[in-house]
Design a protein that fits this description.
This protein is about 65% helix and about 0% strand. It is an all-alpha fold and about 350 residues long. The chain has a two-stranded antiparallel sheet. Helix 6 packs parallel to helix 8 and helix 6 packs antiparallel against helix 10. The radius of gyration is 22 Å and the shape is globular. About 5% of the residues have low confidence. The chain binds fe (ii) ion (2 copies). The site of one fe (ii) ion (FE2) has 6 residues, from helix 4 and helix 7.
C-alpha cells in the first residue's frame, strides 16, 4: 500500500546533515560526484546501495521508503479487523492472504530502506513513538463488510496508480521491491471489486452497504495522492532524482478517469456533485471533480483522525506481544552459528 510521501520539511536536510562546513577540495569532489550521479539518473540507470549518492537523495528515499513500509504494516489493521467476521470461508481465505501480502510488502520495504544505512529497529521506534508518518487513509474505520471491498477497489487501486511509476524509480532496491509488490496489489484491487460486484447482485441492504462504504472512502482515496503539485514541498527534487515520475495531480486525475467507469459498471454513485466528463480537456477528455477538503487531510495527518490512537496502540501492542518470537529467532540463529563454528 502506498500513498505519496508526506512532504514534511526537515530542517537538517543536505548541508547540515553532512556535519558542518566542508573544505573547498571536498566541495569540488562532491560537485564532480554529483554531476556524474545526475548524468546516470538522466540516462535512466539504476543507483545501487554502494554507489555514491547526494545526502538529500538518500534522506528522501529513507523517508519515503520507511513511510511506505509503515503504511503497509499499519494498513493490515483496518482489514485484519474483519478476518474473524468474513461472511464465507472463501472470503476469509482471500482476506487472510491479502492482509498477509501487506505484511510481506512491509518486510521488503524495510529491507530496501536498510540498504541506505538505517537500522530497522530505529525505523520501527520512530513509528511507535509517533515521529514517523504512515498513510492517513488507515486512520479511517472499517464499519461494514463492504469496506473490505471498497478498500481493495479504491485504496489498493490508488496505491497501484502511485506505485507503478515507482517500478522505474532510480533507486534499484526500491524499484525491484515495487515490481513484486505491484503484482500482488493488482490481485488486491480485483478481489475488492469482485467482492463489491457480488454484494451489488445481492439484497437492497447489501447494495446500501456498498454505497455507504463508497461515500466514506471516496474522498480519502483522492487524498492518497498527496497535496496539489503547487503545495508539494519535495516534489521538485524527487522528480529531478528520478524517484518520482508523475506528479500528484496527474496521478490523481488518472485514478479518477479509470475509476468513474468502474463505479458506473458497479451501479453505485460517487459522492461528488461536481464530477462530470469534460471533453475539452486533453485529447481524450477527463473527468472534472470537486474540491478536496485539505483541512480534513491535515487533521488526520496531524494525529486527529478517527483511529490514529487506536492504530498506533495496536501496533505497539503487536510489537510487544511478538517480543518472544524475535528473541527465540535470535537465540536459534546464535545456536546455529555456534554449531557451524564447532563443525568447521
Ligand atoms: Fe501493499
Ligand atoms: Fe494491497
Amino acid at each position: 500500500m502506498y500513498t505519496q510521501a508526506l512532504d514534511i520539511p526537515s530542517p537538517d536536510r543536505d548541508d547540515a546533515a553532512r556535519g558542518g562546513p566542508r573544505s573547498l577540495a571536498e566541495q569540488q569532489r562532491d560537485a564532480a560526484y554529483e554531476a556524474e550521479f545526475d548524468a546516470r539518473v538522466a540516462r535512466g540507470e539504476f543507483v545501487e546501495a554502494k554507489d555514491w549518492m547526494p545526502e538529500g537523495y538518500r534522506k528522501t528515499l529513507v523517508r519515503q521508503i520507511s513511510q511506505h513500509a509503515h503504511s503497509e504494516i499499519v494498513g493490515m489493521l483496518p482489514e485484519g479487523n474483519w478476518i474473524t467476521r468474513a461472511p464465507t470461508l472463501k472470503r476469509k481465505a482471500i482476506l487472510l492472504a491479502k492482509v498477509q501480502d501487506e505484511g510481506g510488502h512491509g518486510m521488503y520495504l524495510y529491507a530496501a530502506a536498510e540498504t541506505l544505512g538505517v537500522a530497522r529497529d530505529d525505523l520501527v521506534d520512530a513509528l511507535h513513538s509517533g515521529k514517523a508518518k504512515y498513510s492517513s487513509i488507515f486512520n479511517y474505520p472499517t464499519l461494514n463488510w463492504a469496506d473490505i471491498g471498497v478498500i481493495g477497489w479504491l485504496v489498493d487501486g490508488a496505491a497501484i496508480m502511485n506505485q507503478i511509476p515507482l517500478c522505474r524509480c532510480s533507486y534499484g532496491p526500491y524499484a525491484r521491491a515495487m515490481i513484486r509488490i505491484c503484482k500482488e496489489e493488482s490481485f488486491h484491487q480485483r478481489q475488492g471489486y469482485d467482492l463489491l460486484l457480488t454484494m451489488m447482485k445481492g439484497t437492497a441492504d447489501q447494495r446500501a452497504m456498498v454505497q455507504d462504504a463508497v461515500d466514506r472512502w471516496w474522498w480519502p482515496s483522492l487524498m492518497m495522492f498527496g497535496p496539489h503539485d503547487k503545495d508539494s514541498v519535495h516534489s521538485g527534487d524527487s522528480i529531478k532524482w528520478g524517484i518520482k515520475r508523475i506528479s500528484n495531480d496527474d496521478l490523481r486525475q488518472k485514478f479518477v478517469d479509470a475509476t468513474v467507469p468502474q463505479a458506473k459498471l458497479l451501479g453505485i454513485s460517487l459522492p461528488d456533485p461536481d464530477l462530470r466528463f469534460n471533453e475539452e480537456r486533453g485529447e481524450r477528455g477527463h473527468w472534472d471533480f470537486g474540491t478536496i477538503d485539505w483541512s480534513e487531510f491535515r487533521n488526520v495527518v496531524n494525529g486527529h483522525g478517527q483511529c490514529n490512537r487506536e492504530r498506533l496502540a495496536d501496533r505497539v501492542q503487536a510489537w510487544e506481544d511478538g517480543a518472544w518470537v524475535r528473541e527465540a529467532a535470535l537465540a536459534h540463529a546464535e545456536k546455529q552459528r555456534r554449531r557451524d563454528r564447532l563443525a568447521a
